[in-house]
Specification:
- Helices cover 38% and strands 21% of the residues.
- The protein has helices spanning 11-21, 41-51, 101-122, 128-141, 189-199, 207-219, 245-260, and strands spanning 56-60, 64-70, 86-90, 93-99, 153-160, 166-171, 177-179, 182-185, 229-235, 241-242.
Length: 261
Amino acid sequence: HRVERSANPPVELLLAQATEDSPMSRYDRALTIFSPDGHLWQVEYALEAVKKGSTTVGVCGKDIVVLAIEKKSASALQNPRTVRKIVQLDDHISLAFAGLTADARVLINKARIECQSYRLTFEDPCTVSYLARHVAGVQQKYTQSGGSRPFGISTLIAGHDADGTPHLFQTDPSGMHSAWQAAVIGHSHVTVREFLEKNFDSEARENEDVIRLAIRALLEVVDSATKNIEVAIVERGRPFRLMTEAELREHIDAIEEAEDI
């Protein structure tokens, strides 16, 4: 006898087809949904945006913290002072970032407001660890809400506490924050981190040693021209300052001479 096929396909087949055709079949479409292997793919993609950013190095010394970044080439018509990757948050804290500059601007403004709010409330400057936790908390909040996306930046937060102790913290789009003696974010971060792991000496933490280590780490992936490098020094009791091209040239020449010996 001839068996007639049902005009309606099985429910299992309909579900399978709906799953394949649905925009939600890929777990990267929604921020708040975990993939079966435990990933939040939008956060992973935000980390990829960080990896495309400028190489940014931070090294913590005995008295200072040094932030060094790779400067991307800008148009000859553009004012370079309007594009800053290292900024001051308070008298004693500075921040460098890698990733989306527009996202960084929003996060920097939130951090500056928190610094002033803390001063108003407690009549003391906030600690570096407190501000790092606050920045990381803001980033984490944007990984849990529908209708928003994570910040596409990682930050290095450098500064001193009231007792003069220098600190260096890193925050990521996931909302994680951690303290480091030397850290790197941005593209080529694996190469630079390997260099820092081999060359960082916890005993050699004088100002000159720390400055030159940060510059040497950046020179691993950046041309030695001073126009490609920007270095900031965060020192206790002194305002945040950027090194001049003449100072940079002096350090680069000394590094190249030492390597030639």
